[in-house]
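Service request form, structural biology core

Requester: graduate student, group of Dr. S.
Request type: structure prediction, single chain
Budget code: on file
Notes: please return the result as C-alpha cells.

Sequence provided:
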Amino acid sequence: MPAGAPRRLTADDLRRLPQPTATPAGCACAHLKCPGWESVAAPLGEPLLQRLGTLRDPEEADPTVQELHADGSRYESAHAPIAPAWFPYNRCEVWTCRTCGRGFLQYTEFGGYYVDHRLREVDPARVLGA
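Core staff response, request fulfilled:
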C-alpha cells in the first residue's frame, strides 16, 4: 500500500462497527439518519467523522457498476444489502463517528451534469461478503 493511502477494509471490518441503534441520543452524529443512501450537500468529515479506510480495490482499474440486491431491494432501500464488492460500495470511503464509532459509507456520484455526494450508515447486519 502506498504511503498515505487509506487502509483497505473488508466486509468483516464493517461487521465490527457498532449497530446504528447503539448511537447515544446526545451523540453528535445522532442527527445523521441514513439507513439507505441519502444525498448530502458535501462530503462529511472532520471534526464530526474520522476516516477509517476505503472499500476501493487499488488493483481494480475498472470496478463493476453492477449492484447486488435481495428481497426486492433497490439502490436507495434501507434494507438493501451492503455488499463491498458491488456498486456503489466498491467506490466508498468508510468514516466513523469520533464519539460513538458508528460507521458511515460515503461516495460521490458523477453524472453528466451533476455531482451528488451520498451517505449511508453502516448496519453490520446488512453486510454481505467476506
